[in-house]
Fold this sequence. Notes:
Blueprint: H1 2-32, E1 40-43, E2 50-54, E3 60-63, H2 67-94, H3 98-101, H4 106-115, H5 117-124, H6 130-153, H7 161-164, H8 174-188, H9 191-204, H10 245-248, E4 263-266, E5 277-280, E6 283-285, E7 293-299, E8 302-308, E9 317-319, E10 323-329, E11 335-341, E12 349-352, E13 355-358, E14 360-366, E15 374-380, E16 402-408, H11 417-426, H12 430-436, E17 445-451, E18 454-460, E19 462-466, E20 478-479, E21 487-492, E22 506-509, H13 527-538, H14 545-552, H15 558-567, H16 583-595, H17 607-627, H18 639-647, H19 667-686, H20 695-698, E23 700-703, H21 715-718, E24 720-723, E25 734-736, E26 746-750, E27 752-757, E28 765-768, H22 785-789, E29 794-795, H23 800-805, E30 809-815
Helix pairs in contact: 2-6, 2-8, 5-8, 11-12, 15-18, 16-19, 17-19
Pfam family, one: Penicil_amidase
Cofactor: Ca(2+)
GO molecular function: hydrolase activity, acting on carbon-nitrogen (but not peptide) bonds, in linear amides; metal ion binding
Amino acid sequence: xxxxxxxxxxxxxxxxxxxxxxxxxxxxxxxxxxxxxxxxxxxxxxxxxxxxxxxxxxxxxxxxxxxxxxxxxxxxxxxxxxxxxxxxxxxxxxxxxxxxxxxxxxxxxxxxxxxxxxxxxxxxxxxxxxxxxxxxxxxxxxxxxxxxxxxxxxxxxxxxxxxxxxxxxxxxxxxxxxxxxxxxxxxxxxxxxxxxxxxxxxxxxxxxxxxxxxxxxxxxxxxxxxxxxxxxxxxxxxxxxxxxxxxxxxxxxxxxxxxxxxxxxxxxxxxxxxxxxxxxxxxxxxxxxxxxxxxxxxxxxxxxxxxxxxxxxxxxxxxxxxxxxxxxxxxxxxxxxxxxxxxxxxxxxxxxxxxxxxxxxxxxxxxxxxxxxxxxxxxxxxxxxxxxxxxxxxxxxxxxxxxxxxxxxxxxxxxxxxxxxxxxxxxxxxxxxxxxxxxxxxxxxxxxxxxxxxxxxxxxxxxxxxxxxxxxxxxxxxxxxxxxxxxxxxxxxxxxxxxxxxxxxxxxxxxxxxxxxxxxxxxxxxxxxxxxxxxxxxxxxxxxxxxxxxxxxxxxxxxxxxxxxxxxxxxxxxxxxxxxxxxxxxxxxxxxxxxxxxxxxxxxxxxxxxxxxxxxxxxxxxxxxxxxxxxxxxxxxxxxxxxxxxxxxxxxxxxxxxxxxxxxxxxxxxxxxxxxxxxxxxxxxxxxxxxxxxxxxxxxxxxxxxxxxxxxxxxxxxxxxxxxxxxxxxxxxxxxxxxxxxxxxxxxxxxxxxxxxxxxxxxxxxxxxxxxxxxxxxxxxxxxxxxxxxxxxxxxxxxxxxxxxxxxxxxxxxxxxx
Length: 818
């Protein structure tokens, strides 16, 4: 017995020692991948010594003798800090995520292959001008120089994630950067998603279903089923399970994910310091690390500083000594879904404009970790590539024997958009910027501009040309064989939508600016946020950098201010005081709080929580009886719809009546029931004391690591979770998930914010949502996250002396001896 006990002790001690040794070994190899920012490297591909000066926040300031050397060093800096993220973004565009993530990523790879993101990127390389091709090549050489350093110096494979996934670090190619730009373009537009939703709503509720997503002044649409008389549909209510948010972000970006931004500027005559001001905050899904990366590069045309996306060698939002610019996804209708009839008895042919036509087909093989490779057949029609039926539940709107093909302005080769973006950061004034942006195709952008002489705005990107007889004008999927439904081509944005000298000296956009209607489409972003932004800009005659910062962090919900007086009109203070502790008293207390609330979605207040849960419960009660299970997939609130219902616009009040019940319910009754349901839900979560409830308890920003975020244990290290203010309609946008066990999670926001002050350029301020490094063990992995949450910033200067004075490390690149 004693001998057995001794062996058990020895075995236990041995296991403990082995476990500690493994942890130490894992830590050692992980730490080995942290770059030394004070090192000197001999590298091939530069003509003269280059310096990468790192600030306290790990922002690289790059100085070299030539533009080629500078772009080389930018590629190396990106790779030092974000190599795994760059590799994943490239894989997402190539359709090769399954090689590291396994079969769960197969649908994403299938879609990327069908869209031809990487194929079109390769075809676009020759469409770039000479300086851009040189920059892409130099950038790729810089990335590869760091990969070589990893291989030569045993630097932990470059990032700890590479130890956990069976991944070979392939050398970077110029086309890889173009592919990430294509992925960015596909991720920024949601027009396909909205077309499918309109069709599903029409099938579920043919008489009024499309009212839910209609915009004010939008002309009526035909019932979707009427476009395919006699055909049978799979059924709009049939649905697949909502995709896990983390899986949807496996590649950091995903087609149809959606993006937004605010961009506004005031000319010198409208500012206190006598110089133009410009603010910009591109809004994407929140990840860890974030999508954006701060950098400063010194080009022959002057220094450039601002926000980059690792993998793309351009300052996408920033300033140079003479010009500041900010980008906003333009929210134009740049996609149309066409329903194609497959020839009965011959799956290789479809009904074209001139009769039955062969699909253009090709086969591609997708490697899958842990499984046998999968070969897929990709089909293209005259309208575009055939999409998988599972994407966005497209199969639910397909007549039997039909498939869906996508026409998209970005789905082509010979796209010079990278040249346009490179020209933008080299431009010296607004006119030069507008000229450079003339070649932009996708993503379509509203670009806000400011220089010493004034401010302006440019709509840059290609627009589809639709026939006047098109019955949907981009809002519904249409039969692809009808000539009047097809695109007549694509064209650059009209010159009339460029304004370089706005009246009043200010411009503002949240993606909804410009002409509406058939030219740009009817889905024009959040008009409430646009109105609030314009109000903040117009309420002051003279602006300062601080007023721009305050506007950028504004958390007042214009939707709450619009809906609460309408929805609660017949509920405020209408009942006799109820006893403490009763549901009636809770309702009265909740209404009293909301009646005195200014609409600020402050994380520390109960009112935003009550309002948000109430509006979601209200919309659910209004639409459930009409839409059935489809109501589960409405992940956002539609304020224009609720407004129409409670004003009974064109008889929309009928939505409040529950069809299955004998009584005729009023909107006031439904509003009261929804409020009671919201209070009950919140009481179950947080207890009966309304004053103790907090918006930030449910509305937390979740910056998820796409690769490690769901791994037990590691998720606590790599994911960042913070309580946040705002909502989807506030200028400081904080979009909610909208489904699942935690629908109030903040999963989208301004991953980059900047305010550029041309009166005192070095006082310009910047912030990103996490940190500069993608390495979870780096102190720069999350050192900016708390500043971002509090609405604070860091300064970045173009002054080389200031960069050197504040340097925490200087990387020296020396030309390798031949």
